[in-house]
Amino acid sequence: MKKILVIDDEMTTLQMMKLFLGACGYEVLTAENADSGLEIFEKELPPIVLTDIKMPGRDVFSVLKMIKAMRPETEVMVVTGHGDKELRKKAFDLEAAEFFNKPLDTDALDAALKKIEKKIGI
Asked: Maximum distance among all alpha carbons in the chain?
């Protein structure tokens, strides 16, 4: 089964993503903060990660760097409720696959996932 890790500090977002992505055929791993997300990533090595930018604790851009350092082929999609051009540029400079603003458009997410699946062959 395809795996995806979702990192977000909002429980309702995690629950919604688990339902949506599960219906899309994913085994959905969830983490409520960046540190637990990194722990799960190191253990499970999912090929796709969907992470919120603004969370308490570790800077999510450092998480993106660490994921890419551990497994460069991992596709990381970034979601934010505080989108601006600088955050978007920084995410893409760090090799994010996609950048979404909240509220998340599930049609856009589905299209991005299909593009990523084709790219990585899952």
From this structure: 35
